[in-house]
Amino acid sequence: MQRFMITGGNRLSGTVKVSGSKNATLPIMAASLLLDGKCTIRGVPRLRDVAVMRELLIYLGASVVWEKDVMHIDTQGVGYQDVSEELMRRMRASNLVLGPLISRYKYARISYPGGCDIGSRPMNFHLKGLQTMGVSIKEKFGYITAEAKKLKGSEIYLDMPSVGATENLIMAAVLAKGTTVIRNAAREPEIVDLQNFLNCLGAQVKGAGTDTIKITGVNGLNGAEYTVIPDRIEAGTHMVAAAITRGDVLVTNVIPEHLEPVINKLREAGVYVEVKDDQVRVAMDKKPLAVDIKTMPYPGFPTDMQPQFMAFMTLAEGTSVISETIFENRYKHVMEFRRMGADIRLEGHTAVVRGVPGLSGACVEATDLRAGAALVLAAMAGENGTVLDQVEHIDRGYERLENKYNALGARIIRVHS
Ligand SMILES: CC(=O)N[C@H]1[C@@H](OP(=O)(O)OP(=O)(O)OC[C@H]2O[C@@H](n3ccc(=O)[nH]c3=O)[C@H](O)[C@@H]2O)O[C@H](CO)[C@@H](O)[C@@H]1O
Ligand SMILES: C=C(OP(=O)(O)O)C(=O)O
Fold first, then answer.
1. Per-residue confidence (pLDDT) for residue 116, from 0 to 100
2. 137 vs 142, 154, 165, 341, CA distance in Å?
């Protein structure tokens, strides 16, 4: 187990560069399984989840060479294998191999994926969409078996704009016979990135970024090089870090358009935010005003920023109402914030956060990835020292977060126990 010892009370100042997007890299790596050849992905973040996806590809027979932020994947001659349950359980995004495997081999058997405990996260939309494409699905003893003679282009309507289901279905449709239309598709920037990557390989995908995506099946794909987009959630986390510590930070390598909901809420809270090309400067020198947040699919306020924003609101002037509409169990950080002196009342899917004058250091636990990041922010803004356990969760989605913040003036020590 690893923990952070965080000394609070330091303003962050300086420049921090955002790494490549986790949620874009993972589906792009999975999509490489559609190819019988080589591709190179640039801007790959050094994260635990990316390492797990790499292991998964290697387990399936691919060669994966990962140097700094460049990954060379060779899927020539990869034959079918059932995916090991141990690997599937290590993260939620392992489910993204289902679409490519069924598309390439017309057969896939996977166990249900694992991942952070933020909700039940079923796969019914993924499976219903595949069934529409002619795939027979059997679910037994925690395993999903998908089988088809051939995949046929179809009209699919998603009951909810699920990110993973949209990605799995795009990947399943790329080599299918005919045209697939996905309606009520998720519109996240990571889906646009997947479309752009697939089209570089020779796929015909159109409409990502809107709620209707059209995929015309092709016979095969060719190799390519691709650079993933910057991570908008990492960027948003740094922006809140600057604001909560009353600092002044330039966040570089960002696509500001992807951050509009976060930028708007920060400004509403009284934070100075200056946007220029691929950089955002965030400065704050007073107590924030309380603002309300409701998480929504993109372009709404991202659920992956809810815990970090809640950390900020614990110190606001007034009362903030935060509604989590995406994941039913994404409030585990509330208990941890309370240990630090926050005043938060939970009413179903709503958290009522009454700003307090200050937070104090405490022994807390990173219950999941974003909860962990949010606790780092709270601890940096708090008084005294905080001991944050289970920081392995944070390593799933941030490249050495402590190094980035220490370079800005924070005091965070990683301890291995
Ligand atoms: C690797 C990756 O990109 N992860 C992101 C992705 O997760 P993920 O793709 O798992 O999230 P989804 O968009 O699928 O989930 C949204 C909601 O739909 C529900 N649902 C989903 C699929 C399904 O078949 N049935 C069903 O009921 C989920 O339980 C959840 O309540 O989008 C989430 C929502 O923006 C983000 O928090 C995650 O960081
Ligand atoms: C919930 C997240 O990721 P995943 O879907 O991989 O669990 C996240 O990135 O905040």
1. 73
2. 13, 16, 15, 49
